[in-house]
Each structure stands twice: as structure tokens, then as C-alpha cells.
Amino acid sequence: MPPRIAHNTMHPWHERVEASLSENEVIVNVQDFLTSLGPADVARLPDDCRPRSIHDATDIDYWSVRLAKSVKALWGTQFDQEVLIEVERLFLRASHKLSGLADERAPRP
Q1: Largest distance between two CA atoms of the chain
Q2: Which listed residue, of 1, 74, 90, 106, carries a Cα 20 to 30 Å from 7's Cα?
């Protein structure tokens, strides 16, 4: 399994999401990422920012927005945001990838 936190390189989980060829593959990679978070990491997330299960693109989009709002609300506070930002960025990447996959499938005039 790839390491969670990247330092000055593209995050390996982001690479897995970007390499996904289908919605299902994106979802599986996000689920795998969430499974890779240990109890100590999960405890560092606000209670309302702990994605439990991801079933489809709607879940990815919901959590992408929810996590982004939490990052914004907590910005500049003393709250430890390292894991929150990491999770938020992966969901943002997954949401962006899903949009691209949907565009590829859309009929062209």
C-alpha cells in the first residue's frame, strides 16, 4: 500500500485515483485510502469529517464539498489539520477525476 503523506511529490494515492479508468475504480481507490487511515489518524479528524463508506460518485462529491468547507472553517485555528487536508485533497482529486470520466462518456454532438 502506498504511504499516506507525500512530501514534495504527487501523493501515491492521488496517482492511483488519476490512473483509474472507471468510476468504480476511483471509488475502490478512495475506499482503500480510507481503510489505510489508522485509528490515530481518524481521531485527528473532526467528528463530522469522517467519511464512513463510499458507494458512488455522489458520495465522493458530497465528502469533497464537506471536507473543503471544514478546511476553510478551521483555517488559521489551532486545530491540527494535517490529516483533514490530506483527506480533503484526495476527495477533491477523486471528484475531479470522476468529472473527467463523465465527460469522456458524454455523447458528442
Answers
A1: 52
A2: 74
